[in-house]
Design brief:
mainly alpha; 2 domains; two-stranded antiparallel sheet; two-stranded parallel sheet; 4 strands
Length: 187
């Protein structure tokens, strides 16, 4: 017999030695089916575990994103796009008493402690506000360009065409200037 036989193959061969070749081949076929079924079940279990890990990772990412957004909003606002990379490395989901909880972690990977227990994301944002390198993230954006003036007069398209057709060149130029400046709206 082959040297690479397993213990179960060896037992199957011992049982089948007194039998004819048909019985041995039936036992071997049964063993092969059993192994194939076990491998298939193991592959399905790995596939299910991988799917569960992907789901858990996505759920943790959503928990962290929500916690960061809530803390940024509560802190009075900041440029979230610039602040998020600084928070992502310091915030993680940890398992406490069977529950997934968002916690601020330190450089050593342990939960950081704040004023009244585990540090919150809001407390971390407060600490980041004191960092002189990050102060620009928390400054309000510069004022935008002033809005266009509200029109003082609104014409329908038909009224506009009639006004232009009946006006002399000087009045027509004044109407065009006012329309271009936004003082006249044509709807």
């Amino acid at each position: 017999m082959n040297d690479e036989m397993t213990a179960s193959d060896d037992r199957g061969a011992d049982v089948a030695e007194g039998c004819d070749d048909g019985a041995v081949s039936a036992v071997m076929a049964a063993l092969h089916r059993e192994r194939a079924a076990r491998r298939s079940a193991e592959a399905e279990a790995r596939k299910a575990a991988d799917a569960a890990d992907r789901y858990r990772t996505q759920a943790h990412r959503l928990l962290i994103d929500r916690e960061i957004a809530d803390a940024v909003h509560a802190s009075g606002g900041a440029n979230t796009r610039l602040l998020k990379p600084h928070l992502d490395g310091n915030v993680a989901v940890v398992d406490e008493d069977g529950r997934d909880v968002v916690r601020v972690i330190g450089d050593d990977g342990q939960v950081r402690w704040g004023l009244r227990g585990p540090m919150t994301v809001a407390e971390l944002i407060h600490d980041l506000k004191l960092d002189p390198d990050l102060v620009s993230i928390f400054q309000p954006p510069r004022a935008a360009a002033p809005a266009a003036p509200k029109p003082t007069r609104t014409y329908s398209r038909r009224e506009w065409q009639a006004a232009l057709a009946s006006a002399n060149a000087e009045t027509r130029a004044a109407l065009m200037r006012d329309a271009a400046a936004g003082r006249i709206a044509v709807r």
